[in-house]
Amino acid sequence: MPGIDRRTFLVGIGATGLLVAACGTGESPPASTTPTSRIPARPFDRRLPIPQLAPSTVEGGARHFSLRAAPGQTEIVAGTRTPTWGYNGSMLGPTLRARRGETVAVTVDNQLPETTTSHWHGMHLPARFDGGPHQPIEPGAQWRPTWTIDQPAASLWYHPHPHGATLRHVYRGLTGMFLIDDDQEPQGLPNTYGVDDIPVIIADYKFTPDGALDESDPDDIGLLGDTIATNGLAGAYFDASTRQLRMRLLNASVGRVYNLGFSDDRPFAMIASDGGLLEKPVSLTRIQLSPAERAEIVVQLNPGEPILLHAFPIDKWPDETFRERFGYTDSFDVLELRPDPQLRDAAPLPAVLATLPAAAVPADATRREFRLQRGTDANGKNNFKINDQLMDMNRIDFDVPEGSTEIWEVVGRDRVWPHNFHVHNAQFRVLDIAGQAPPPELAGWKDTVFIYPQTTVRVAVRFNGYGDSVNPFMYHCHLLFHEDTGMMGQFRVVAPGQPPPSVPGHSMPHG
Ligand code: C2O
Ligand code: CU
Ligand code: CU
């Protein structure tokens, strides 16, 4: 491949400033050996599909979108027709786009053979429209959530959340992006959708010999694949026509963690995390994304000089065997960028992107602890718990007073197992990781954060509005196998003066 020295993929994989916390003294793993990768190299010879911007109509003061979830067939791998599920197409879904202040209304039509839900990941909205496990859409039924967009510009996403089956629904292809725009966005960021501003939805798959998705799984982190797809296709390239390219990266994998960078180690600017713009662009050579995390990056391209988005090994893990088992030694190309021989120039990136409030908490803030830990079920299989409990649809774990800011302390209790932590309805700020201030890439708005083994991450989270003494929001590990097997809990946001919380163990309303 012109201009690319493949050796660079195997060297220069030094520590990248990503948080590796103290894993307990006396436990340090042996110096890492040459990384092994189970992901075969492949040609990048298929044009990257750009999910369509969902058409919408404005009526009765709301912007209306329609999503229809249905089965189809997709050539994730060229020449192989794979049964998949998609929204308005055979796989993935259109990109929904709305502005802050707009009211949106979505019709979700379930044409799947089983019950699904439609969750708006990262969105601040009323609990009854959140699309979690308490808002099932039966086969043949429609669901019509509506809410007013009330949060900064961000790259959010949507996916199903049926109780115990989220992994399967997401794995089969039900994933789309939801972009929010606002008037505060600075001038000068690339923002022509599909041209200099592209969604890059990354997921890994494995196949049975007849080309179906292989859903058989060891009970660990969930369906690690040997085929990497971007926007639903393996081996894709993007023809770039501009010197600056904004990539909205989404890790839509059910279990894989990606440590992304470029084949020639060129730096890129990270401009946004899960919930919106960072204060200023941050120059990085790697960005690590665990399942559900997003990063917006801007990379500078040279005319006629292709480069590859590459996933590097995860540098540090407390145990070499598990490091390999979890895919953290894998090293592989993700997407090729092919700049035209002539590129449109672009203005330099703005020096200031956003003003973020200090990640501070009131001195009397409520502190809650969430201990994430693997367990085993009656058959000796792994299951996953928070505070020693499995998810129970009929148990509300706690209530949060509307308007309060709390400190949530998330503790990775396992010695070698990864987790991450996602909270519905609110974007949070990381206060510290193993006692250290977060690195710049984790200092902005987040809704999902990776939890290294034996590490505590403290976040400040504000619950603003939408008090509802009935419908809960979820918090969970977004490694979907863990979520499905128990690593999830529920809380309500309760307004002052709302009826007192009902007795624990009462039955939840169930659509
Ligand atoms: Cu992507 Cu419960 O969320
Ligand atoms: Cu979510
Ligand atoms: Cu987990």
TrEMBL record:
User: Where do transmembrane segments lie in this chain?
Assistant: none
Q: Which UniProt keywords apply?
A: Metal-binding, Oxidoreductase
Q: Which PANTHER family match?
A: BILIRUBIN OXIDASE, CUPREDOXIN SUPERFAMILY PROTEIN
Which CDD domains does this entry report, sorted A to Z? CuRO_1_CueO_FtsP, CuRO_2_CueO_FtsP, CuRO_3_CueO_FtsP
Enzyme Commission identifier(s): 1.16.3.4
Broad class of enzyme this protein falls into: oxidoreductase
Q: Is Plastid one of the keywords?
A: no
Which Pfam family, just one, is annotated for this protein? Cu-oxidase_3
- Record keywords: Magnesium included? no
Under the subunit heading, UniProt states: Monomer.
UniProt lists the family membership as follows: Belongs to the multicopper oxidase family.
User: What name does UniProt use for this protein?
Assistant: Multicopper oxidase CueO
Record field: catalytic activity: 4 Cu(+) + O2 + 4 H(+) = 4 Cu(2+) + 2 H2O
What sequence ranges are listed for the domain Plastocyanin-like? 72-184, 375-494
- Give this protein's Gene Ontology molecular function annotations: copper ion binding; oxidoreductase activity
